[in-house]
């Protein structure tokens, strides 16, 4: 498989900066329009329970402003399910959510939460929304995704990204092997693997080189880099690093 690897740009942190002053600038919709213009393949947005970045009205405005597929990251709650069913994004990625965490700190325990997740996955799928589960790259979680009938999993690359800075060569290699092996296992079972969390210019290429991975979702680094070089340049550079690695 050497199809073009898709880049979903997570625009949450444009909204984080906006919300710091309570006004309407910078607008994540403008970011979405730039992503569309420079060849991003999708917009990813996480509507958190506490609305710390993306807010309800942003979703509709993003959908109205671009034709790019929207990937809504959401906790498996009744409130978020209702919002997803109302907006009908292209995809919904179910993530674990703790109020006190700074970001999504680990994967969803799809195995342990089967009974809670099953009706959410079914209702999203019945509405034509492509369901993804944000999981650790492990056999147990892929097996759970299979039992839940999820067509997509997104591997949490946080450990890999952390190892890249603090872990040393062996730890990076073992994380990469784990993600690569699990991408192959998912694909063999008909599940499309994606990956995301903590990806940067420096660490993206080994992940992008894993042939089964179809999509990367990248946010914090791109928005941070955009402060220095502009969002257009940041997305364009990430895009070409991903293409080079393929
Ligand atoms: N994918 C998922 C499911 C996420 O929850 C996040 C973080 O919100 C990302 C990708 C993007 O991670 P980062 O902002 O570290 O690039």
Automatic annotation (TrEMBL):
It catalyses: 3-amino-2-oxopropyl phosphate + 1-deoxy-D-xylulose 5-phosphate = pyridoxine 5'-phosphate + phosphate + 2 H2O + H(+). The record marks 154 as: Transition state stabilizer. GO terms for cellular component: cytosol. GO terms for biological process: pyridoxine biosynthetic process. The active site is at residues 46, 73, 197. Pathway: Cofactor biosynthesis; pyridoxine 5'-phosphate biosynthesis; pyridoxine 5'-phosphate from D-erythrose 4-phosphate: step 5/5. InterPro entries: Aldolase_TIM (IPR013785), PyrdxlP_synth_PdxJ (IPR004569), Pyridoxine-5'_phos_synth (IPR036130). 3-amino-2-oxopropyl phosphate binds at residues 10, 21, 198, 219-220. It is found in: Cytoplasm. The keyword Cytoplasm applies. It is an enzyme of class 2 (transferase). Keywords: Cytoplasm, Pyridoxine biosynthesis, Transferase. One of its GO terms (molecular function) is pyridoxine 5'-phosphate synthase activity. Pfam families: PdxJ. Its EC number is 2.6.99.2. 1-deoxy-D-xylulose 5-phosphate binds at residues 12-13, 48, 53, 103. Belongs to the PNP synthase family. Homooctamer; tetramer of dimers. Catalyzes the complicated ring closure reaction between the two acyclic compounds 1-deoxy-D-xylulose-5-phosphate (DXP) and 3-amino-2-oxopropyl phosphate (1-amino-acetone-3-phosphate or AAP) to form pyridoxine 5'-phosphate (PNP) and inorganic phosphate. This is Pyridoxine 5'-phosphate synthase. It comes from Sphingomicrobium lutaoense.
């Amino acid at each position: 498989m050497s199809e073009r690897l898709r880049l979903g740009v997570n625009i949450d942190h444009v909204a984080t900066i906006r919300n710091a002053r309570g006004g309407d600038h910078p607008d994540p919709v403008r970011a979405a329009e730039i992503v569309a213009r420079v060849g991003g393949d999708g917009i990813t947005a996480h509507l958190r329970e506490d609305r710390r970045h993306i807010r309800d009205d942003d979703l509709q405005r993003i959908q109205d402003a671009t034709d790019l597929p929207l990937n809504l990251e959401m906790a498996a709650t009744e409130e978020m399910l209702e919002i997803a069913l109302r907006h009908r994004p292209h995809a919904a990625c179910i993530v674990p959510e703790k109020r006190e965490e700074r970001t999504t700190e680990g994967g969803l325990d799809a195995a342990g939460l089967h009974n809670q997740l099953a009706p959410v996955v079914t209702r999203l799928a019945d509405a034509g929304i492509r369901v993804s589960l944000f999981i650790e790259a492990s056999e147990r979680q892929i097996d759970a995704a299979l039992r839940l009938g999820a067509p997509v999993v997104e591997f949490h690359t946080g450990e890999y990204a952390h190892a890249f800075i603090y872990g040393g060569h062996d730890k990076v290699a073992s994380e990469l092997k784990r993600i690569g092996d699990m991408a192959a296992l998912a694909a063999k079972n008909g599940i499309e693997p994606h990956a995301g969390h903590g990806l940067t210019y420096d660490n993206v290429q080994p992940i992008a080189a894993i042939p089964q991975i179809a999509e990367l979702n990248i946010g914090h680094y791109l928005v941070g880099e955009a402060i220095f070089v502009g969002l257009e340049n940041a997305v364009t550079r990430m895009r070409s690093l991903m293409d080079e690695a393929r």
